[in-house]
Design goal:
Blueprint lengths: L1 H15 L4 H29 L5 H16 L13 H13 L9 H19 L4 H11 L17 H4 L3
């Protein structure tokens, strides 16, 4: 019963994807908020009918405890329904970290995390990770002070390219 409502929430988000934040907020108020209200009613009813220490009871109590975080997307059209893009971006790192050569030490793990973060941030900003990193590694030794490091951040890269 609640799975259908969740599927409908994602359907609303699909409709809202190309909308401006204000229009997305209006659509959510019209279509998502009633679904969330129905889900809350179902949750309250189910909490009263399920043993708290059962697997389902624990899951329902977790949902109840996380409710403000689940419904936060209703407050602002800029807030996504979920964090799937971030989860998908880190998945290869999480899956592969045990197999990577330099992750056997804390320093190696930090280096891997830093470079991976740069790559994913470059992708999120519409950049080619290879071209971006090539530019960073060529430019980094020529910088005179730490303040110039900001010019190499992925979201500023296009503005700092030499003409």
């Amino acid at each position: 019963m609640s799975c259908k409502r969740i599927r409908k929430l994602y359907g609303v988000e699909k409709q809202a994807k190309a909308l401006a934040p204000e229009a997305r907020q209006t659509l959510r108020d019209q279509k998502s908020r009633p679904l969330i209200d129905q889900l809350r009613t179902w949750l309250d009813k189910s909490l009263a009918q399920v043993l708290p220490k059962s697997a389902l009871g624990k899951a329902l109590h977790y949902l109840d405890h996380q409710w403000p975080r689940l419904t936060r997307f209703l407050d602002d059209g800029l807030i996504p329904l979920d964090n799937n893009p971030a989860e998908n971006a880190i998945r290869p790192f999480v899956v592969g970290r045990k197999n990577w050569l330099f992750s056997h030490t804390p320093s190696g793990a930090q280096a891997s995390a830093a470079i991976y973060s740069l790559i994913e941030t470059a992708k999120a900003n519409g950049l080619s990770p290879y071209e971006y990193l090539q530019y960073v590694f060529e430019t980094l030794p020529t910088l005179n002070n730490d303040d110039e490091l900001n010019t190499l951040l992925p979201w500023q890269w296009k503005e700092t390219l030499p003409l």
